[in-house]
Structure formats: C-alpha cells, structure tokens
Amino acid sequence: MVDRLANSEANTRRISIVENCFGAAGQPLTIPGRVLIGEGVLTKLCRKKPKARQFFLFNDILVYGNIVIQKKKYNKQHIIPLENVTIDSIKDEGDLRNGWLIKTPTKSFAVYAATATEKSEWMNHINKCVTDLLSKSGKTPSNEHAAVWVPDSEATVCMRCQKAKFTPVNRRHHCRKCGFVVCGPCSEKRFLLPSQSSKPVRICDFCYDLLSTGDMATCQPARSDSYSQSLKSPLNDMSDDDDDDDSSD
Description:
Elements: H1 2-6, H2 9-22, E1 36-45, E2 50-58, E3 61-69, E4 73-81, E5 86-90, E6 99-103, E7 108-112, H3 116-137, E8 173-174, E9 181-182, E10 189-191, E11 201-203, H4 205-212, H5 227-232
Antiparallel strand pairs: 1-2, 1-7, 2-3, 3-4, 5-6, 6-7, 8-9, 10-11
C-alpha cells in the first residue's frame, strides 16, 4: 500500500499541507518515495510538564512540533529518522496512561495517546515502518539509545547524592548519559557522547567514573518495561527531552 501511495497526488498534497503548516522555518518534507502514514496529537512528557505536540508519521521519518493553531500552524519542527527508532510500551501510572517510549541514539522521550486503541495503532504503524526500512536497507536495529530524562517534578533532591535540595538558586541539571536529575556539584564534569553532540556534554559523576574506566554498560539507560519503575530505582536511567537545547521542552 505504501508503494502505491508514494507517487499519488493525494499523498503529495497531504505532505505539502504539512510543510505549509510548519512554514519557512520547517525543513522540506517532500522527497521521492516518502509517504505520510498518519498524524495526530500526542502528549509528550517534557522536562517541566506534559505538553500536547502534533506528530506526523511518514514511512521513513517521525516529525513533531508545537501546536500554534491546530491543523493550521506548527513550529519548532523536529525530524527523527525511523531507522534509528525503537519503542517500548509504558505501564499506566495515575493520570499518565496509554504511553510508550520513543528511543533514538540522539534523543529519547515518552508520549501518551488519548486512548488505548490510539496507542496500539501508533505503535503498530511505527514498528511496521521501522521493520520495513531495516528490511530494505539490510541494517540492524540500533542498540544505543539516549537516556529519557527524568522530569523535574520527580526529583526534589539530587538523585545521586540524595542530599542537595533543589531551590530557585540550587537548580536542577540532567545527566545526558543516565537522564537523572542532579545538582551542580554532582554534575560538574563533561564527556563526549558523539551520538548526542559534537561537544562534551554534562554528565553526573557516577556516569563519568564509569565512562572513564570504560564500563559503558553499567550506566546505559535501562530498557524500561515501566517508566515509573525507572524513576524509583537509583541505578536505572530514563527520561525526557533536552530543555537546555530546546527551551520549549
């Protein structure tokens, strides 16, 4: 079906509408063979709080952005190549229901659908697109994923030293390797994580010591069968989007 739609006028028109909604600030999305599979609003668990974001699933990329005017205008476009994506379901926890993790080497985050059916459809379509892409390219799924950042609200004290309380003066930081919320003294060091940045990035002392000794696996983000469980374990690493690089999140 995807191959049949690739060169159809309807598909070309739909992609053009998405491009126009992002305006001149967005990247061109029309290329030969690209098909818009579906679109919808998902709640993205951002650093400060959950926020509604518009998502577009293509057969090779996942695109999302901030909603300015629903179905008319979006900004802060993000494009994620699907061949680098893996997804994991998240168990329902309180008001956060129907969620899953979108994990890539560069960025990982949690999203939530309005219903269980919508969640299932999104996950099935994403998995199908990823499987088809990898099958055509002969590549293997990526084993390296950026940590999902623990939301600020989940930590009133540093998740490493367990002592420093966060205040307007003693602000929160995120380790780019494990995703934990940590204090300044526990995250003064920088380390080069090529999949995330061309420059050394902030990491906590715990991860720095492990990375410096070559013990990479110990501070890898956990696979996450349960997002909430990862927030309760001091050695599991998960969480959200990079607010320092993207002030909207």
